[in-house]
UniProtKB/TrEMBL annotation, chain A:
The keyword Cytoplasm applies. Keywords: Cytoplasm, Initiation factor, Protein biosynthesis. This is Translation initiation factor eIF2B subunit alpha. The keyword Protein biosynthesis applies. It is found in: Cytoplasm, Cytosol. Residues 13-32 have a biased composition (Polar residues). Component of the translation initiation factor 2B (eIF2B) complex which is a heterodecamer of two sets of five different subunits: alpha, beta, gamma, delta and epsilon. Subunits alpha, beta and delta comprise a regulatory subcomplex and subunits epsilon and gamma comprise a catalytic subcomplex. Within the complex, the hexameric regulatory complex resides at the center, with the two heterodimeric catalytic subcomplexes bound on opposite sides.
Automatic annotation (TrEMBL), chain B:
It is found in: Cytoplasm, Cytosol. It comes from Rehmannia glutinosa. Residues 270-282 have a biased composition (Basic residues). Keywords: Cytoplasm, Initiation factor, Membrane, Protein biosynthesis, Transmembrane, Transmembrane helix. This is Translation initiation factor eIF2B subunit delta. Its main location: cytoplasm. The chain crosses the membrane at residues 154-180.
Amino acid sequence: MWYRSASFILDKQQQGNDTVTNPESCPQSPASSAMAAENPNPNMSLYYQTRAAHHGVVTSDWLAQAQAAVGELPVSENYVTGGEDESKGFSVVDEFNNWRRQPELAEAVAAIRALASVIRSSQATTMMELEIELKKASDSLKSWDTTSISLTAGCDLFMRYVTRTSALEYEDFNSAKSRLLERAEKFGEISYKARRIIAMLSQDFIFDGCTILVHGFSRVVLEVLRTAAQSKKLFRVLCTEGRPDRTGLRLSNELAKLDVPVKLLIDSAVAYSMDEVDMVLVGADGVVESGGIINMMGTYQIALIAKSMNKPVYVAAESYKFARLYPLDQKDMVPALRPIDFGVPIPSKVEVETSARDYTPPQYLTLLFTDLGVLTPSVVSDELIHLYL
Amino acid sequence: MDSRRVPRTVSDPKVRQVGFFAPPDRSQSGPPAPASSSPPVSGASPSGNTLSPVMIPPPRHLSADLSRHFPQAPPLSSLGVARAVDSSVPVGSYNPSDFLSPAATADYSEDPLSPRWGRKGSSGKFATSLPASRFEMAVAKQSIFNLPPSRLSFILSVLILFILFRDVSFRGVLSLFWVWRNCETDGGSTMDMSKEQSSVSGKPLKEKTTKAERRAIQEAQRAAKAAAKGEGSKPSAAAAGVNPANANTGKPVKAVSQKKDNSSVAPSEKKKRVEKAKKRSVVKQTEARNRVELFRHLPQYEHGTQLPELESKFFQLDPVHPAVYKVGLRYLAGDISGGNARCIAMLQAFQEAIKDYSTPSEKSLIRDLTTKINGYAKANLISGIDLFISEKIILADKVIVKHAVTKIRDGDVLLTYGSSSAVELILLHAHELGKQFRVVIVDSRPKLEGQKLLRRLVGKGINCTYTHINAVSYIMHEVTKVFLGASSVLSNGTVYSRVGTACVAMVAHQFHVPVLVCCEAYKFHERVQLDSICSNELGDPDVISKVSGRKEINSLDGWANSENLQLLNLIYDATPSDYVSMIITDYGMMQSNFWKQLLRYQSVDLEN
C-alpha cells in the first residue's frame, strides 16, 4: 500500500495545506537513516558499480555518474580518520578500490588485502596500537561502501581474527605482525579455494541432461558450471538477461566459450520457461542470519516462481559472505541504488525503482553450497555463530 | 507420617483450591490435621501431632526449625510438618507446602555443598516450585523470616562457606536471581504500578510446581525414612542448613527455603485460615464447582475473598518480613502488574528483608564465624540484588531498545498488543529519535491494559490508533510491523505471553507482517511447552461476566449457580515460534527457536 491508511492521506493533505513536506507521504523514498556519511553519492552503489565494471558493461550513464561522483569527492574523504594514515598519505580506501577493480578478486579478499596493507605500512609498535589502527581502517572501509555485504563481512572476519587469535600473545611484535600478514595472504588463497570447493560440492547436483536456470553473474556459479563442463557433463543453461547490468550477456559469452548450450531469456520470460527448468542456480551478494540471501534484483522473483513450481533453488556462496544481518522485508536493508539506462530519455517526473538487489527469504531456498559444506538455510545461523563468535 | 502421607498422594491432584478452604471430600486428610493440632499460635506448627514418632512435637513450629540444628530429627519434623500441612490444607493457588519444602529439602539434602547454583535441574525445580500465586508469594515470603535464629545462622554459615570457597557467590546469586526471575514470569507489562480490575497476577509456571511437588513428596518420604533410621541428624542438618542457606543466598534458594519454611511456618497460619475458611466454605465450594474440565489441572481461582483476610494478618506476621508480605499482597490485589515490575518489587522486598535480618543471639561454634562475616554477607547480597536489577532488567531494556529502533523506519505502522514495558520504551525512544510512525494498540478485556499504554503514548505525541482484539484482522492490512512483549520465551522458541498475543501473531503471520518479540534475557526458560493448556493461570471468572461501568450488561449474573455454565479466564497463552519472526533481547536479535544455541555460544548459561 502506498499510503498505509486513510489517516496518512489526511495527514498529508493537512500538511500539504501547511506547505510542509510530509515525510510520511513518500514511503518509497529511502529511509531517513540511509546512506553513510562517507559515501558521497547516494544514487549509486559503489559495489554494484564495480561489478558492472567487472562485467565490462559500462554505459554512458554509469560513466557520467561515476565521473560526477569522483569529482565530488573531496580528497580528505579518502583518508582514514586516524592520524597515522593521513600523515603517510596512505589511504586504505584507495588501496581497497585498487584491489577491487581486479575482476577475478572477490570483494572480501580485496578488503582483507587492503587491511593487510594497513598492517604493512603501519608504524605501530604494540599490538594494541596496531589493533586500533586496523579497527579504524576497517570502519572507514565499511562506511565507504555500506552496501557491500562481502566487504563488511570480510572486514569483520579479519578483525575478529586479529582480536582473538592467540598469535597476538607472542612477545615479539614483529612476528605477530608477520603472522597477521600471513593470515591475510592466506585468506586470498582460502577465497580462491572456496570457489573450487563449492564447485566440487555442487557437481553431485548437476546430472546429465539437466537444465539450469542462472541469474546474475556470479564468479562462483561460473566456476561451478565450468567444472561441470570440464567433467564432460551434458547440460544446458538458461540465462536471464539481467537488466540493467546485462549480466546474462556476459555469462552467455563465457559459457559459449565452454561449449555449453546456453539460451538467453529476458527477465520476464522466467515463468514461461520455468517448467522446462530442473534447477535454479544463483550466487549471493550476502547470506543473512535467517538463511536468506541478498542478491541481484530479480532473484526473489525467480525463487518465488521456482518454489511455486517445485523447482529447487541452489545458492552458491562462500562462507565469508555470511553476514550478521536480519532483514525483515525487502526494504529493511541499506539501500543499494544503481542507475538504469532505458535507452530513451525519461521525463523527470517519473520515478524509477533503482534498487540493485533484493532479499530472498529462506523458505524459498533449497540448499546453499558453501565451502563449509552443503547447508540448508536453517543451519546458516549456526554456522554464523561459528564464524563470528 | 506414612499414614498421613498416603491421603495426600491419594487426594485429587486436580482439585487444588487457591483459597483457604477444606473441601468436604478431603475431610479425612484435611481437618484432622489442623483440627487435632494445638490451637494455632502465630507460627506454631499445626501438624504438631501429626509428626512422625521420631519427632518431638515442638510448641511452635519455629522451635521445630530451631531444633533442626541439633542432631535430633527436627529437619525431618519440619519436613513432616510440611507434609502434614500439605496433606491437610491446600494453601494458595496450589499447595505451597507440597512443592515448597519438600522440593527444597529434596534438592538440598542431596548435596548441600554442591554448586547448587549451577544446577539447572534443581534451579528449574526451584523456579517451578516458587509460589506462583500472589498469595503464595506472600506465604512463601513469610516463611523466610520465620526462621529461628539458629537456622538463620546456618543459612549464613553455608552462605559464607560458598562465598569463601567458591568465590562465585556473586555469580551464584545472580544465577539464583535468574532462576527466580524465570519463575516470576508475567507479561511484559508496564513498570507502572497500576491497579487492575482483576486481581490475578502472574504465577510461576504450574508444571514446575507439579514436578517439584512430586519431587518434594519423594524427598520428604526419603528424608523421613532416613530420620526414622535415626541417622537423620546429618542429612537433616544439611537439609536444614541448605534450606536456610537457600533462603538467604538467593531467590531459588529462597524459594526452596521458603517452601520449607513455608511448610513449617504455614501450618500454623494455615490452620487458622483453614478454620476461617471452613466457615466460608460454602461460598468457596460453589466457586470451585464451576471448573472448566480442560483446565482442572490448574489451580482454580478462588482467592477473590482472600484479600481482606490476608490484609488483616499483616500485623500478625512475626516470622515474615512485612516488606515481603506486602509485595505478596500487592500481587494478589493486582497493584503490580507486569513481569519486570513484579520482579523488581520482589527483589526490593528481599533487599529490605536482608537488611533487617540480624544474627541470632544464640551462640555456637558455627555461628561465631557467622557473626563476624554477617555484615559482609548481607552487604554482598544486597549489592548483588541491586546489580541484578540494574543489569538484567534496566540495562537489558536499554539494549533492547537500541536494537529495536533500527527496525523502525519512517512511514511504519506498528502494532502492539496489551501493554509491554519493553515495547513502550522502544516506541518512546523511536519517537525521540524523530522517526515518523503510527502505532496501533490492540487491547482486550478484561484487563484492558492497553488503555494505559495508549494514554502514555498519546501524551508523548505519538499518533495512535486504539482497537480491541476482535478487530485485529480488520486493521492488520495497514500494519507494517508487530511488536510484542513476552512473559517468557521457552526453550523451543515458544513465546509465553498475555492471552491474545498468539492471536495477534497468527493474524500478522497470515498477512505477512513481521512479528518482533521484545524480551529481556532473564525471562528465557528451559521449558518446552506446546500449547497453552498444560500450564497456565486462571483468572477471576467474574470479571468476564461483568463489564465495569456498564451495569446493564448483567445477563451472566449468577452464572455460578448454573450447572452447565463455566466461565474461563485465562491469563497467558503460548505463541508458536513459527509466528514469530525475530526475538530482540539484550543479547541481540535472533530467531525465535535459535536463542539457546546463540546464548550457549556466547557463554551464557541461564541457570548459572
